[in-house]
Each structure stands twice: as structure tokens, then as C-alpha cells.
């Protein structure tokens, strides 16, 4: 006959390993192995210990352990450099700062390696520097496949966890991915424009491409957009503005709008602020415009009514969550999910002032 477990009386009491062992009716050794993910415990015993931990509300004293060991964890962050042409990347620093403020007392530090978004050689140099360092974890935007694979191989050999954010690479064994589901965000944009336009009105998909641009998620957005309409008769035009300066882009888009007067909705898979500036300069107001990101320019165009809809990617939260997940995985020994998809938030002129 099994002994009855003691009643749980944890109020105002610090729960320790001995309490867990007593509650689970095991010795201290298996509890210690489960808490530190060391194995050597049967699954039945492990489940009993985990249940005891949950019932007792046990929380490890990470700060005390950290002070005792003196261990410092340093994470490498590889992220594009914010520029005047691509200001999106400046928003992530707020997330990094927030995470470090919370975790600094637990010995968490980061080192950021910047590279230029459309320059593969710049990304290679950032990877070289990161590999040469002594890091416990990596949080990266894997824009270029070859160099990302090289970094992943290095980390796999060293047993170092890697988390992707913003951009994802299929069939790559990273610990996790943080970002939007690009395909479904494209479907969302299509759904919105579908409800805004009459059946006979046409759509245009615009992608602004530079020579070394390698953002597969831009293409995934477009596939999602197209898939929404695959069983409909809606006419969809596509325009990839390749290596055009602002003057050439303006001339090409204005010409297209003037020669396709049935186009009443435009989906911009990246850099919508460039299209919005052209619309404002040319006084184009009869075309619905939808794209991505709450950068300062886009919000201004949204409030003016030049842009009709913005899909937010939560860059600050992506950065914050990336650091937090590496901490949880390495320090707290918690399992990490394979993907953390951001909500697909739609912002308009009428609700932008209430959004943080």
C-alpha cells in the first residue's frame, strides 16, 4: 500500500530539493538530475518529480546559483545595420536593452555584430568575427544561406544553440525561429484588399530588390498573397523593382499606375515607405496601399492616409524574446519550442494612436 503524500503547505516557505524529493517519494539524487537535465532517471520517476515540482510551485534560485558559480553567459547577435534606406533594424535595440535589464543580474551579456542587409561579404565578415569569439549562444538574422550554414555547422560542432529571428531558413537545424509566418501574413494582406475592392478591380504586388537581396520571406509573403486568390478570377500584376534608384522607381511605378487604371490595390512586400513617398508626391489617393513595419516614416504616411494598412512584425519583442529564450534554454534548462510566430497585427489610421 502506497504512502499518502503529505499535504502541500508551501505558503511563505522556500521550496528546496529535499521538499521535492519528499513530495515525489524519491531520493534527492534523481531530483537533482532532473533539475539539471542530466539524465539517468526513468521516465516514470521523472514525471513524478516534474509533477511534484509543479504542485509545490518550485522556482530555482538562479541568482544565488549564478553568484556562487560566477558564470557569465555571452550571446552573439548578428543583425543588419540600420541605415537611412533601411531604418527597420534600429527598432530591435529596445528589445535587447529590455532583456538585458531583466537578465543582467544573472550574468547575461550580448555582443552585437552588424552587417549590411544586402551585402553578402559584410555578412561573411560578421560570421567570421562571431565564430572567432567565445559565445554561449547565437541569435541571428540568417539572410545569406551559405554563410548561415557555415555558422550553424560551427555551432553544431561546439554544441552552441542558435536561434533565428525575423528571417528563417528551411531545413536548417536551428534551435528555434522567432518571427512572422510570412506566407500567412501575405494571405492576410490579400484578404484585406479583397474586402476593399470590387471584383473587377485589379491588384499589384511590388517587391523592391537590390543586387544581393536574399530575403526569402519576401517571396513567401508574395506566395501567400497569390495563394489567397488562386481560385478567383482577380487579376494580379507583379513588379520587381530591381536595382532602381529612387528616381527610376518613381518613373516606373507612376507609368504603371497611369497605364493600368484598373489597379486599385497594391501590396508591397518590403520597403513600403518608398512607394508611399511616390504616392504622396504624385497625389495618388485612389489606390489602397498595404505593407509592413511601424517605422517612423510608415506611421507618418499611415496617419496621412497615404498608406491604408500596416502589418506589424513586433521587432522589439522579437529581439527581447530571442535573448530570453537563450537564457531559459541555457540557464534554466527549459525546453524551447521550434517556432514562436508573432501575431499578425493590422494597423490603420484609426487605431495607430492606441498601439504600442
Automatic annotation (TrEMBL):
Superkingdom, natural source: Bacteria
Cross-referenced InterPro entries: HTH_LacI, Lambda_DNA-bd_dom_sf, Peripla_BP_I, SBP_2_dom
Cited Pfam families: LacI (PF00356), Peripla_BP_4 (PF13407)
Keywords of the record: DNA-binding, Transcription, Transcription regulation
Domain HTH lacI-type: 15-69
GO MF terms held by the record: DNA binding
Name assigned to this protein: LacI family DNA-binding transcriptional regulator
Species per Swiss-Prot/TrEMBL record: Olivibacter jilunii
Taxonomic classification: Bacteria, Pseudomonadati, Bacteroidota, Sphingobacteriia, Sphingobacteriales
Amino acid at each position: 500500500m502506497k504512502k499518502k503524500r503529505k499535504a502541500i503547505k508551501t505558503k511563505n516557505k522556500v521550496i528546496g530539493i529535499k521538499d521535492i524529493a519528499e513530495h515525489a517519494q524519491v531520493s534527492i539524487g534523481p531530483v537533482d538530475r532532473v533539475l539539471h537535465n542530466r539524465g539517468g532517471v526513468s521516465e516514470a520517476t521523472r514525471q513524478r518529480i516534474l509533477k511534484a515540482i509543479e504542485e509545490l510551485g518550485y522556482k530555482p534560485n538562479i541568482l544565488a546559483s549564478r553568484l556562487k558559480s560566477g558564470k557569465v553567459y555571452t550571446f552573439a547577435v548578428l543583425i543588419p545595420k540600420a541605415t537611412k534606406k533601411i531604418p527597420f533594424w534600429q527598432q530591435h535595440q529596445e528589445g535587447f536593452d529590455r532583456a538585458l535589464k531583466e537578465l543582467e543580474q544573472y550574468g547575461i551579456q550580448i555582443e552585437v555584430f552588424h552587417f549590411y542587409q544586402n551585402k553578402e561579404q559584410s555578412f561573411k565578415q560578421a560570421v567570421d568575427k562571431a565564430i572567432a569569439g567565445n559565445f554561449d549562444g547565437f541569435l541571428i538574422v540568417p539572410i545569406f544561406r551559405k554563410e548561415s550554414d557555415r555558422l550553424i555547422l560551427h555551432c553544431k560542432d561546439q554544441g552552441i544553440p542558435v536561434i533565428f529571428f525575423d528571417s528563417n531558413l528551411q531545413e536548417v537545424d536551428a534551435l528555434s525561429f522567432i518571427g512572422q509566418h510570412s506566407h500567412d501574413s501575405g494571405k492576410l494582406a490579400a484578404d484585406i484588399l479583397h474586402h476593399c475592392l470590387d471584383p473587377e478591380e485589379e491588384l499589384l504586388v511590388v517587391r523592391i530588390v537590390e543586387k544581393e537581396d536574399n530575403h526569402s520571406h519576401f517571396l513567401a509573403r508574395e506566395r501567400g498573397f497569390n495563394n489567397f486568390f488562386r481560385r478567383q478570377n482577380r487579376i494580379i500584376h507583379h513588379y520587381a523593382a530591381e536595382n532602381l534608384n529612387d528616381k527610376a522607381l518613381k518613373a516606373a511605378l507612376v507609368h504603371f499606375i497611369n497605364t493600368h487604371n484598373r489597379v486599385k490595390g497594391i501590396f508591397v512586400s518590403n520597403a513600403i515607405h518608398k512607394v508611399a513617398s511616390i504616392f504622396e508626391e504624385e497625389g495618388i489617393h485612389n489606390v489602397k496601399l498595404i505593407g509592413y513595419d511601424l517605422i517612423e516614416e510608415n506611421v507618418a504616411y499611415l496617419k496621412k492616409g497615404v498608406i491604408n494598412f500596416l502589418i506589424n512584425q513586433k521587432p522589439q519583442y522579437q529581439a527581447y524574446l530571442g535573448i530570453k529564450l537563450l537564457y531559459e534554454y541555457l540557464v534554466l534548462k527549459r525546453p524551447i519550442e521550434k517556432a514562436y510566430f508573432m501575431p499578425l497585427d493590422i494597423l490603420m489610421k484609426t487605431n495607430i494612436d492606441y498601439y504600442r
